[in-house]
Amino acid sequence: MRPALAELVARAERLHEDLELESVREWKGTARRAIGYMPIYVPRELIHAAGMLPVGIVGGGDQIEIIRGDAYFQSYICHIPRSTIELAVTHRLDVLDGMLFPSICDVIRNLSGMWSLLFPERYVRYVDVPQNYDAAVGGAFWMQELQSLREDFERLAERKITDDDLARSIEVYNDNRSALDDLCRARSERPWVFPTSEMYLFLRAGCVLPPEEHTRFVRAYLEEAPRESERRDRDHSRIVIRGTFCEQPPVGLIKTLERAGCWIVDDDLLLGLRWLTQEVPVDGEPLRNLAQAFLRHSSATASRYEPERTKGNALVEAVRGTRAEGVVFCAPSFCDPALLDQPMLVAALDRAGIPHTQFKYAENTGQFAAIREQAGTFSDSIRLWSGA
Ligand code: SF4
Known about the structure:
The chain has helices at 3-17, 22-28, 44-49, 80-89, 106-118, 135-157, 163-189, 196-204, 211-224, 251-259, 286-296, 313-321, 336-352, 369-385; strands spanning 34-37, 53-56, 98-102, 123-127, 237-242, 262-266, 326-332, 356-361. The chain is of the alpha/beta class.
């Protein structure tokens, strides 16, 4: 690998492995503040506008042994709450001045309650996002929530958040989402130049880097990766993966899919970083603009309300738009939102004649042989028999 690219990838790997949040500690120094958030969506613009750093927390992956985290949860739920508790009780998250728990599912709701009991002195908030997309109902509710969050962050940061501050932050995040859009588009066009197992590390860096720095980092990767002459297309199938919006699969699993003959050309990994699908306007009332963007331009996913008859349309469009040949549902074990949505998505794919397969993972899954066999067979069957 060329040294410039190797250096970028090495930095992305270091950030991915940085469970101690050293980069956040460095950014904070002694005077600044950082607010953690769980997947999927929180309005990071408001945290940024208060001069604080939003920090995405997605559990401990396959890097930590769960010793105390298991004691807080029953066995038949996903893994991310246990490893997040483990990170917290081992003081790895002490650098955070507060924690947001967006409403995705009951597990995250319970985790927010657990947090309040464990850390009564810290700022904790359950962020109840709208489930009604009527501007007069869900929109009015979300405006109130955003205003209330704004006041919380003003108290924590000990400064006012003006409309100008917020408009500037909206611009910064528009820029960041545009870089991520470019990255996803480039990956979809040439997945051998931007393999998802590598691109994911650059996406993931957005959990801990300030957005301005993350945008530069992603743009540098976009420039460097195509200079790598060794990267060639292979006889792989083009697939979309779904189910990975919250608990993250280990990078080894993504690599396994690639080694099994699948180019991943679209995904829902860390969807919160790409939640808003269009630029948020900077003119006018910024809080209203953020609220409207959530209602009108947020990603279709299991934790967001959609009328039943439209479920699956976005997935079929993603397959068509990226010239994918099949879908791999790969969801965390026991993830209610992902697994409850799956039958409706499967029905939409069946109607459209798009092949699919499914398996489950945990963030600390270490054995990939069965997944490799299944994904390899799926990829082969697409290439040999599918007319999709
Ligand atoms: S992985 Fe699924 S069930 Fe678990 S916290 Fe995330 S959304 Fe909820």
